[in-house]
Amino acid sequence: MSNFVYLSQEKLIEIEKELKELKTNGRKQMAQRIAEARSYGDLSENAEYDAAKEAQGHLELKISKMEEMLAKAKVVDISRFPADEIHVLSTAEVKNLKNNKTYKYTLVSEEEADLQQGKIAMSSPVGSALMGAKKGEIVEAKVPAGVIKFEILNIE
Question: What CA–CA distance (Å, rounded) separates 121 from 110?
Answer without folding.
Answer: 5
